[in-house]
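User: I'm writing a tutorial on reading structure tokens. Could you give me a worked example: one chain, its sequence, then its tokens, then a sentence or two explaining what the tokens reveal?
Assistant: Sure. Here is the example chain.
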Amino acid sequence: MKLTILGGGGFRVPLVYGALLQDHAEGRVTHVVLHDLDPARLSAVTRVLAEQAAGVPDAPEVTATTDLDEALRGADFVFSAIRVGGLEGRANDERVALDQGVLGQETVGAGGIAYGLRTVPVAADIARRVARLAPDAWVINFTNPAGLVTEAMSRHLGDRVIGICDSPVGLGRRIARVLGANPREAWIDYVGLNHLGWVRGLRVAGRDELPRLLADPDLLGSFEEGKLFGVDWLRSLGAIPNEYLHYYYFNREAVRAYQQAEKTRGAFLHDQQARFYAEMRNPDAPAWKVWDRTRAEREATYMAENRESAGAGERDEDDLSGGYEKVALALMRAIARDERTTLILNVRNERTLSVLDPDAVIEVPCLVDANGAHPVTVAPLPDHATGLVCAVKAVEREVLAAADSGSRATAVKAFALHPLVDSVNVARRLVEGYTEVHPGLAYLR
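And here are its predicted structure tokens:
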């Protein structure tokens, strides 16, 4: 089975390959093709994978190419993990927004819109190529903003593109752990959009254990989200929000923390990864050791500004191991081998949430089998969550419209309608600022 990874020179690719090395079942991936536009990055990651595979019998063969069509042709699965504009683009997204006093986070608010505007045209082109060169392939989208990009690709690939994110899985795992339950035996009632969802229940043996958590302030305050949001706010909500909702519920504090930080997250990762790739130019550098050291630092500093503003302290060691690669591999195995499972995924709504149309991509539990991912029926969202979900989905639709039309006015509308951008004039200045620093937005007229 052939797996193509787009963005194959990306820093997190060894996480995916490491998961593949642990898969010894029949019908596993035998050939991994890495595609990237940067040959030096491809070379660095290929070295890391070679050291990972040392001593592993029947490790999947790895090849690398800068030719997109060659990479896609004949693929059974395509993992899309591209970053249009690189980490420099992310750092610019953050800085332009912060200069206007609004959030510049990668997927939330102004930064997410800017990232989406330059990513959607590229993702749509990839989807059209997949449809032509590998029509039977399944595309698993890692690329942020994951829900928006998955919806853009679904217009060309239908249900054969599925978006993934490890945030809901990590949240459910933390809740189960603090309740003394086995995460594998728990049903997580999670619903929303990517980076905008809530756990409303956690059932073990048919019993919802979330009320027990919400009723115990000591237990509720003992894990990441309890520390981040505060016990009182979680009890008011009657649910546990995805950590990214901290940007909405505590927006002023988050913006202030980002403005006061020595570096934005994008600037930190840009510098950190530049050191990694520079070190990898030394042929004698221990590739795996250098990569693993850099990974540990990256994970430990995740959402550091939010935790600092909330007084949440350091991340728990159990939360430093990532997890998106495990979701991707579980999804791929379920489809390839018809191993039926349940995963929280980004898929087309169909009739799941009545407030959204069937083509809107949402993030909900799905039953997965050889025919793909099928969203599970969920209870309606409460009014406060419905308002946010509908507002952000409306913004995503304006981003898609701007990417299709090249309309600068529509791009301004996307920024202005976002709940975290509080002024049409700010929206206009954001578009001006982003088009100045991003060549990839030159199509906006």
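What the tokens reveal: The chain has 20 helices and 13 strands. The radius of gyration is 21 Å.
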